[in-house]
Target: PPM-type phosphatase domain-containing protein
Amino acid sequence: MQGGVPHRREAGLATAEPDGHRAHVSGARLHRRYLTREPREMSEKRRTIAFLMDYVGGDYQSEVRFGIERAAEAHDVNLVIAFGETLALPGEGGAAQNSVYQLIGPETVDGIIVASATLCHHIGIEGMREFFRAYAPLPVFSIGMAIDGIPSLIVNNGLGIDLSVGHMIDVHGRRNIAYVGGPANNEEAKARADAYWGVLAARGLPLDERLFAVGAFTIDSGRVAIRDILDRGVEVDAVVAANDKMALGVIELLAERGLRVPQDILVSGFDDAFIARFSKPSLTTVRQPMKRLGAQAMDTMMRMLDGEVVEDMALLDVELTCRESCGCRVQASASLSPSASTPRDGPSLVAARRESLETALRRSVAIPTGSLDGWPGELLSALEDELAGRENRFRHALEALLDAAGRAGAILDHFQGVIDVLRERLGRPPSGGGGVALYDALERLWHVSRMVISSASMRVEGERRLTVELAATYLSWSARSFSTCLSLPSLKRVLASELPVLGISRAAVSLYDDAPEAQRGVMRSLFLMEDGREVDPPAASFPARRLAPDGFLGGRERTTMIALPVAFGDEEKFGVAVFSSGAHELIYDALRLQIGSATKAAALHREMVRQVEARERLEQERVRQESVVAARIQTTLVPERLSVAGLSLCAVMKPAAEVGGDYYDVLATADGGWLGIGDVAGHGLAAGLVMLMIQSMVSALTRRDPRASPARVISAINAALYENVRGRLMRDEHATLLLLRYERSGRVTFAGAHDDILVCRAKTRRCVCIPSSGVWIGTLPSINELTRDAEFVLEDGDVLVLYSDGVTEARDAHHEQFGLERLCTTIEAVQTESVVVIRDRILKEVEGWCPSPDDDITIVVARYRAPRQP
Model:
């Protein structure tokens, strides 16, 4: 490209056209035909199309899905979007998450569109061919991967890389161009990699394999790939990546190595993802029409269902968008050279160029197929009205266009190119007379228009950010609720309360029937929601391939639904969830994980409850066996390593003959850590079960929010424990629980009810008793008003001692308790010794006092060391 004029390629032929900093590629269509089944009768019910992809979120996935959804609306067909991660190889992990794909069939849908480029990373083209074959005789369509015998739609990946690498060579004079490719089994990645080598060969540059590395289409893999290339010692002056995320990873790693982009190394990507426009520097990239991919795929599927012949494969245009990362910058409008032959008069100025202007305007902005047809003509008519004296007509038309384009998914910043085209084509008239006045009026109009576009773009991005922040907030709240679901009834209550808040009005969560003969081919509805309200699900089971109870997917109104697997890990599949669309994309994948985890927790909890109830019916021998199980639970949950910054720690737990429910835990955090100690009333497996519940919830809640209020954590645990123990187990176990949130500065915030906290001060060598003021957990449905945070501060050398009542209430032969005073005396006697010596001395004194204790003994000792001053 010379003199700011990019090379334009069309069907493989290079042409030149003054089109700003965008190089376009027009797709060549292959003409082999694909004949489908006969068209449906007009009287049949509304069609349903399935769209399969790995995730609903992601730059590529979101854009393609948007195009699919809009086209489904235009064709008045139902849409089922099923996602369940990338397809796994046979025998490898991932089958549970992939299970939703196996349930899509003629029982539910009339045709299937597959985002093959998102599913193929592990199985390659042969695996995808087998994947499609399983859906016969349904019409199928592939996006992003050309598969023999399957109608396919792809972008011209090779020419996109040709443009990107060629731009680095021809415009910027770079010769040592590194390439970060995509997964080896991804056909798009292969095409892009082949194009990279082809461009170098065509221009006579050496084919140096040291400049080539493979990533996984993620930011982290881009970092790793460019790090490997740089570590090979090869000279690099430009990097081309096979997608934008890897390009951003490249930029991050280069910055860490002290290499500036674009001053030292140029970088470009592929896709034109949302983040590419707002990275620093903004990313040069190959823009593929992702929304159009989705829209055209749906259009073609409808033609197939109507019995039309369709192309076996079609290519779509791509274009190179140059930004800061390659050294190019979008030039201000002042850099455009206006024509010297522009007429002076107003409306005729537009009329004389109307046809060419409409063509140029249409090409300057990517708008999904079928959206806003005729907008260039309407905008030019408004400009003619403005020049004829109708003030603000153009601004109002532009504002309306931006509003509609935003709803259609267009990138509003691209409308700056509309103003560039108008200013360039209408240009500066000869000096003097009315021509100068007209030019000045146009310049003011262009200036106002740019401000209108900038304002609209900022507003859209602000709304997008607000939507993401709200989704993240709602997910944070819902995660807390899901984390304490230990039964299917509690899961149903959480779904009923949380789904409407998350923006989901219709939902069907169904689990595989427990009957062995069902062989996972039959489901039963667990939860059903209509119009934001829970409704009673049908009692009858239904074939799993219907995804939801009869009538849920086929109503009078057109619907778009999201189907996802209810699974845990790679192997355990429980069922399917189907939700209405419209919520933020982050929410659906989070729900997939949360519901799967909650269902797994409920299954584990249900199994444990079953075991508890069975054991309670056994005779004394069974009770003894229960004690063995309880002891195993109690001892295996003891933390293996006690490591918290600033604390020397040691602990001991000695179960009694009749195992109780003592509990302690130490959880390190970035700013300090959490210490917990408690005691479940009673003995045996039930006490161990309650202790297990407490430990699990403490771990989950404190890991999620390391700086949480101890009082709030205890209140949440109490609510779940009360419901589980009293409401479901029909038992009355309760517990003391004390939680301490320690900060590296020595500040300790605590809440709960347990034995007094002992702090032996280094300065006085005397013990200070700090009482806890809470209430037992599990006795009341809510203790929010009775639980408050309190604080104390550890100083350098102070010793903190936590203990169970098995220490202070140990009785000698005369039934005298060991007592708190004797415990303090024991600690003070060895205060300067190591924490191990202090712990062992306490244990020795207690065991000497009571050789056969009837309660568990738990001791936690910590010595605080203040941070060294610099």
In short: Residues 307 and 821 are 91 Å apart (CA to CA). Residues 1-43, 330-344 have pLDDT under 50 and may be disordered. Residues 433-483 form the longest helix (51 residues). The chain has five domains: 33-154+293-319, 157-287+322-326, 338-460, 492-589, 631-864.
